[in-house]
Amino acid sequence: MRTWTCNNDLNQKKQIIRVFLFLFISFLGNSCKVLPSLDTNPIEFLSALRVLEKSNHSQDNNSQSNNSEGESSSDCTSNCSTDGSVSVQINYVNSPFSLTTGVSSLNESPVLSGNPTYFTVSPDLPFGLKLDSGSGSISGTISEVVTNADFTITGTADAKSAQTTIRISSVIPAACADVSITTGVGTLADPFQICNPLQLQSMSTHHISNPGSYYQLTQDIDLSSISNFTPISNITNQFTGVFDGQNHTVHNLTIDNNATSHQGLFGYVVGGATTEIRNLRLSNANVRGNAQSGSVIGLLNAYAKNIHSYGAVVDGFADGTGGLVGRFSGVGSIYDSSFSGTVVGGGSYTGGLVGDSFGGDEVVRCKGKGTITGNGAVGGIIGRAAGTLVLNSYWMGSVTGSTEVGGIMGKGQLTDGKTKFSYSVGSVTGTSSLGGLIGSITSSSEESYYNINVANQADNDTRGIPKTTTQLKCPVVPNDSCATTAIYTSWDTTIWNFGTALDYPKLKWENSL
């Protein structure tokens, strides 16, 4: 409690008056004020007293002031904002963070005040790390190399918010010393072990004499020492077997063969249900190829599970260019996978995940984000889907082409060439046959939506259902009519996380990356 001081020469009468006024003010509960001197300016003193009394009577009887301007708050004891409520503060005490890709796990909770309940981060955290939007905690194992990268985290409580910046740096672990593949025998129980760039490159010939074998990546690998990587397998020497990345990352893949088709880390993968590329991540891949090229696989006639390519640039000079896979053919599935980056197709059939797909294939529980540019049949997930189903997937980004351009797929053909329980948020630009979800289709989509505020398309037909940003974000459960219309009626809550009313739905596997 603050009081005012007196001059030493005040007479006893003035002292008594002061004590009386002091007790009166204390009774009113306004002990945070400093009054002017009665001796120097009695009028100012009395005016200040009237202001104090008026301020007190306007408060809630239970409130206590802790602010020099006289505002009230029910819980303000420190860190007060200008309206008298507790201010929002966020602090990650261990920042900056120095991490090793594929090795370092982070589980960091912020020190908070003001009870923020919703958190966002900009730009996106490095791949492998995630921000819990409800608590502000950061967790995961980093997969991406960053150097002194800053990330701004915003916490919001009611109408108040605060920001803080964290800094992250990461390095790739040192490679093992073995030059050739010497560990393992290629079986499920004892797979061939890959732990450095030379071993991974040697797979382009090693797999020929070991068809149907099992390979396993044992740590993150940096391919920046190889200026032009030779794809593992081609149309003549096709890859069969299983490659398990064990959630490790191949960094800095560079392929520059624009006159040769089937370019990617793996060139030509076949074998149906007995062949699989799984649990693999690529960071900052740069691939230039001819027809049927992608960052991970050129042509796939098999299965791919949990494969992710982020920060990639894929440049195809002919038909069939995809962020993950150039051409998906036969009977197989790509599921629980993602792409972020840039795809440029010099011919037709260009897609964020798959350029061209033909057959009874499925793309299931996948997502993409970035910029896709091509000619005919350009889509955020698939350029052309001939008999291919896109199920429980979403795209965020821009899609540009000439004709048959769509947010999820550019061209859907045959009975199963359609989307189910999927959505798109992004611009769609072209000259003809444009759709916020699908450019052209001979069948139909089912419970699939696109953001009409972003797509600049207004079709409402069998190709997709337009919804506003609010309508797509506000539901927290399926069949939620929070934005005046029911949406996501049959969407599976074991697959989708609807989050808060401020988020688009996300796939539940995203929480495990």
List the keywords.
Immunoglobulin-like; Pectate Lyase C-like; 3 domains; disordered N terminus; mainly beta; 7-stranded parallel β-sheet
Short description:
10% of the residues lie in helices and 38% in strands. It has five helices and 43 strands. Mean pLDDT is 86; it is low at 1-10 and 21-85.
Strand and helix layout:
Blueprint: H1 12-28, H2 42-57, E1 89-91, E2 97-100, E3 105-108, E4 111-113, E5 118-122, E6 129-131, E7 138-141, E8 149-157, E9 160-171, E10 192-194, H3 197-206, E11 213-217, E12 221-222, E13 241-251, E14 254-257, E15 266-270, E16 276-283, E17 286-289, E18 293-294, E19 297-301, E20 303-316, E21 321-322, E22 325-329, E23 333-335, E24 338-345, E25 350-351, E26 354-358, E27 362-364, E28 367-373, E29 378-379, E30 382-386, E31 389-391, E32 394-400, E33 403-406, E34 409-413, E35 418-420, E36 423-425, E37 428-429, E38 432-435, E39 438-441, E40 449-451, H4 452-455, E41 465-467, H5 469-473, E42 496-497, E43 506-507
Parallel strand pairs: 2-9, 10-11, 11-13, 12-13, 13-16, 14-17, 15-19, 16-20, 17-20, 18-21, 19-22, 20-23, 20-24, 21-25, 22-26, 23-27, 24-28, 25-29, 26-30, 27-31, 28-32, 29-33, 30-34, 31-35, 32-36, 32-37, 33-38, 34-39, 36-40, 40-41
Antiparallel strand pairs: 1-4, 3-7, 5-8, 6-7, 8-9, 42-43
